[in-house]
Amino acid sequence: MKIVFFTLLLLAALLAGPAYVLATGIVTMRNDWATAHRGSAGLAPDPAKTREAVVQLYAARAFSWRGAFGVHPWFAVKPEGADEYTVYELIGWRAFRGLDGVVVRNGTPDPHWFGQRPAILAELRGAEAAAAIPKIAEAAGSYPYSRDYRIWPGPNSNTFAAWVARAVPELRADLPSNALGKDYLGTRIVARAPSGTGWQMSLFGLLGILLAREEGIEVNVLGMSFGIDPLAPALRLPGIGRIGPGAWAENERN
Question: Between 202 and which of 85, 208, 213, 247 could a Cys-Cys bridge form, CB atoms 3.0 to 4.6 Å apart?
Answer without folding.
Answer: 208
